Amino acid sequence: MKIVAMALGIGVIAGLVELGLPAEDVYRAVRAEIRSHEAPSDIVVVTIDDATLNELQTDIPDRKQDAQLIDRLFAAGATRVFFDKAYADPTNQASDMALAEALARHDEVYLGAAPASEVGIERYATMMPARIFRERARLASMVGEAGPFGLSYRFPTLELVDGKKIPSISAGLAGYRGDRRLYRPDFGINIHTIKNVSYIDVLRGRFASNTFDGAAVVIGQTFSGTSDTHYEPLGAKIPGVYFHALGAHTLREGVPVDLGWLPALLFSAAALLWQAQRMKPDRKVSAAALVLLISVPLGLDYLSIGVDIFPAILCLAIGTVRLERHSQKMFDETTGCLRVEALERLEPSENLSVFALKIREFSFITRNSSDGVIIKFIEETIKRLSATEAGTQFAFHKDTIIWLRPKLQSQELIEHLEGLHALFRTGVGHAGGTVDIAAHLGVDENWDASMRSRIATAIQSAEDALHAGTHAIVANAEYLEQRDKRLSLLSDLDEAMARNNVQVAYQPKVDLKTGRTIGAEALLRWTHPLHGAIPPEDVIAMAEAHKRIDDLTIYVIDTALAGARLARQLNPDFHIAINMSAVALTRVQLIYDMTYLMSKHRVPAEKIILEVTETAPLDDRRVAAVMAGLREFGIQLSIDDFGTGQGALSYVKRIPGSEVKIDRTFVGDMLTSAESRSVVQATIDIAHSLERRAVAEGVEDAETAKVLRDMGCDHAQGYFFAPAMPINEILTHLRGARTAA
Question: Where among 446, 475, 504 does a domain terminate?
């Protein structure tokens, strides 16, 4: 809060002393250039220019000529006429009377006036037209204020002259009738496009008949040598009469409102206060605040609302830098949490356990979120943890929250872990809604190890808990021994694939209508020389956990297609189904690998079915793109284990597949469970309604096969037909089927 107060104080001082006024004026002029547009034609400037003086052979038009000009203008349709001149001194009687009589003939003629004023040490007396003119004409103020370096101007709408309120020339031209306001003329109206006619052309009648129809007119000096010139912001000198016309056009578009510097400064202070309340200031918030400070004034200009932003920018810049430096000392730059390095510097302690909580699919949950939203999500998660870990400092690493807490006894630790898991049974707030997250915990209790090692072990334990599908894993000596074994298996898996010792078994798929074998599903098999047969799901989980799933996927596909090529020599209609890991589907390279392997083994795309588990994250754009690419090449897709995952009809519709596989858990007890039988029938109906094949897996007996056939199921596989078998046996099986046919 001290940082915010300091930055706000500097901003207030900058505003009070107008420290950034030239910069404000320059930016205001730049915005005006962006909004530049032509002036309307209902206000006309009559210019006493060089052409006028040359033709009249005089230094200034005679007042008798001014009288003729007035008559000409009103005869041409002008509604009001303003002179940017006071007529304070008499000339010759005839000329003065001619002008006075013209003023008497026309009610809407305004002569210039100016109140007494002081500019620095200079004092100026009130300037008023001579009595003979003042009694017959209206008055309009000629004064305005120029900012430093001629970068900005302010005009009043009313002035008090000799005790009487009179409009300014710009307000009179615009027909303004409101209270006194001090406003800036809008240079977004291109001053060079203001309609003008030479004095001499009006006097001689050399103008179009509709030039002054319904227009307000202001007359002023524009000849070279006139002292009444002022700089256009970022431009050249312009005769003062044009500034009155510009002000009139400004008032016509809407009376400008000047909010000053305070609103923008309060906005900056609010942004800094919000940042100060966070563990880590968000740079994007500061950048967004700066962008708003810079861009919003442009939008407000279109609404005739002015605002000064320099004090606010100064406040925001100073406050942001100071908050950033403060946070960098303790917190991670990207997450706003305590730095992991800060925990790693601590000395090992037998009284402290290291906890790690991994958020499953963290990157997927936050894939479309800004840094601010992600940090807010992390904060919400930490707030949930704080219910049982009060007063704890949390660190965040990639997708894992790490913290230290006092050592617990075995039973207490189990209960505590259950309590932590229970905290996440309800959704966590994220991006204006809630998301369900799966939290997996790792605890390190290797008291003698360094804190760096213990933190790494806790994080790995949480990762292992995720892949094992369990709530928590406590990393003790036994756990470390098992982990070493898994790492050894992983190394052996790499070697087994290199030596082609990982096998693929083929389980036949049967057409229920004809009883013919129409293909097979390729299933992974690995028998370790020491540990025996390793369950396929363990091999896949291990490969996914240790970034080997791509290599394993290509190995299985390569082997399966090699077998399919041999099978197709016996049955050209033979198709091969291959299970796909959801992780593998996130890799676009899979499409190119498939096309290469199809070409290598000469297996047509339409004879390949990739079985996608129903838990594949379809909201991941990479998965959807890969599946669409595979379908474009003609490869078929199948929803595997339907009914055990999301199970929604929308899920079936979103996969561009050709078949739906009914999970064995429903097929296996459909003869004894009416509920399972209903699920099977509904799945078949859904598949057919979407023009997909229905495939049943896990068929164990003839009666189940008959019921499935009666239900309209298309294909099936299971021990009733044949178990999974090596390639040589599936080829023998196919030869037997061909001989029988």
Answer: 475
Enter the DSSP assignment of 471: S
- Would 25 be classed as within a structural domain? no
**Domain count across the chain:** 4
678 close to 660: Cβ distance less than 8 angstroms = no
Residue 27 phi/psi, 5-degree rounding, is -70, -35
pLDDT at position 386:
79
Q: What is the rounded distance in angstroms from the CA atom of residue 178 to the CA atom of residue 494?
A: 86
139 by DSSP, 3-state: which? strand
Whether 73 contacts 109, CB under 8 Å: no
Which of 411, 444, 475 terminates a domain? The answer is 475
3-state secondary structure of 338: strand
461 lies in the same domain as 535 = no
Q: Are strands 608-613 and 636-642 parallel, antiparallel or unpaired?
A: parallel
Residue 358 · residue 440 · CB < 8 Å: yes
Contacts of 654 by beta carbon, 8 Å cutoff, 6+ apart: 618, 624
Note whether 323 and 416 are same-domain residues.
no
pLDDT band at 741 (very low <50, low <70, confident <90, very high): very low
Buried b / exposed e across 528-541, counting CB within 10 Å, b at 16+? eeeeeebeeeebbb
Any domain includes 28? no
Q: Which domain holds residue 355?
A: 340-475
Is residue 620 classed as helix, strand or coil in its secondary structure?
Answer: coil
* Structural contact between residues 338 and 332, judged by C-beta atoms closer than 8 angstroms: yes
**Do 663 and 729 fall into the same domain?**
yes
Q: Is the Cβ–Cβ distance between 281 and 320 less than 8 Å? A: yes
Cβ–Cβ < 8 Å for 455, 444:
yes
pLDDT one-digit tens code per residue, 11-53: 889 888 888 888 888 999 899 999 999 999 999 999 999 999 9
Statement to judge: residues 233 and 290 lie in one domain:
no
The secondary structure element, H or E, covering residue 567 is: helix 549-570
State both tokens at 338: 């305590």
CB 44 within 8 A of CB 196: yes
* DSSP one-letter string for 621-666: HHHHHHHHHHHHTT-EEEEEEETSS---HHHHHHS--SEEEEPHHH
Task: Note whether 169 and 159 are within 8 A (CB).
Answer: no
